[in-house]
């Protein structure tokens, strides 16, 4: 069995090319393996690109993938989710999840088991799950503190061997 777990597939495929390139995902049945395809996020961003090339083989163990952009999820995907995954920033290809993402805490099974060995690290090498339930996709949600500041200048001065003075100025500060 090939385990294809917790991946993020974004964009992909192109129109006017070979038949195998006209979809987000294509599976070939010219091998002796079975495929377990679960807890992935698949986002189509190109008009005319479907999720799956119907002329190719379909996985037998698909479960709980999030599909967005090219219509409803394939019928063979049990417990699928059709929704915007709510990435941090699609334009800059930051595929980390936002706090209100439907992919957050949505994996099946919720934690790794001997029978279904979900990844224990995400693409950033961060442990998963973070709060007891694994997320879909390549990145496990992790709250981050983001300071909404536009730094203009930062200055540090050494006062003595164990003290320093740090001063900064931001754009909206006089």
Helical proportion? under 10%
Strand-residue proportion: 25-35%
Shape: elongated
* DSSP strand tally: 12
Distance between the termini: 62 Å
Order the strands across the largest sheet as they lie in space. 2-5-7-8
Stretches where pLDDT falls below 50 for ≥5 residues? none
N-to-C SSE series? Answer: EEEEEEEEEEEE
The whole-number mean of residue pLDDT values reads 79
Class by helix and strand content? mainly beta
- What's the gyration radius in Å? 21 Å
**Main sheet record:** 4 strands, parallel
- Alpha plus pi helix count: 0
Structure description:
It contains no helices and twelve strands. By secondary structure, the protein is mainly beta. It is elongated and about 70 Å long. The N and C termini lie far apart (62 Å).
